[in-house]
Amino acid sequence: MKRVLISIALASVVLCAALQAQDTKSTTRLERQHGPSLLQAKQLQQTEEGLLPAISGKLKGGQQMAIQTLRDLEQMFPEYSFAASIKPLGKVLKDETADPISRKLAALALDELHSDAADAFIKDVSAASDDKGLQGLCNALMVKGNYRKILRGGE
Questions:
Q1: Domain count, the chain
Q2: Would the CA dihedral through 31, 34, 38, 39 be positive or negative?
Q3: CA pair distance 85, 115, nearest whole angstrom
Q4: How far is Cα 107 from Cα 118, in angstroms, rounded to an integer?
Q5: CA distances from 8 to 85, 104, 108, 141 (A)
Q6: Residue 112 and which of 5, 74, 89, 141 are 20 to 30 A apart at CA?
């Protein structure tokens, strides 16, 4: 099972690196303004769906790797929403019995989504968590998120 998860993660990274390289070759302003092509969006969706079982799984190393792969994809493709990942990441973040590293990675991944639903999970954990280090991280992410909203003209 571990080898399968590692293979999926590596294939996802290679695929996304190829997509990113192909995307940077785009020279028309129209292509750059409107984000990933339909094919790229479909491939990103399939990759995200492939990572969800590992994120929800209990295999510590596989879960960490899947969350980190998702974070890498979020940074490579900021225009893609990764909405299907919000609930699984939120479950990992709120699970007090989950691996502490996975929980911190989940908090960082949720923050990078810049979504109100993701921010709600972070806010819940920042208010009450047995892991004080995680609670501090979530508080810092909340401050960062509030600052980002102020810069965008919100609040």
A1: 1
A2: positive
A3: 11
A4: 9
A5: 16, 22, 22, 29
A6: 5
Range of the domain at 96: 2-151
Tokens of 113: 């989504």
Neighbouring CB atoms inside 10 A of 76's CB total: 15
Query: Within 10 Å of residue 131's Cβ, how many Cβ atoms?
Result: 15
Q: Tokens 């923050």 — which residue?
A: 111
Query: Can you give the three-state secondary structure of 37-100, one letter per residue?
Result: CHHHHHHHHHHHHHHHHHHHCCCHHHHHHHHHHHHHHHHHCCCCCCHHHHHHHHHHHHCCCCCH
Which stretch of 27-31, 53-57, 93-97, 131-135 has the lowest confidence by average pLDDT? 27-31
- Tell me the per-residue pLDDT of 78-125, one tens digit each, with 9 for 90 and over: 989 999 999 999 999 999 999 999 999 999 999 999 899 999 999 999
The more confidently predicted of residues 125 and 7 is 125
| Cα–Cα distance, 125 to 95 (Å, whole number) | 10
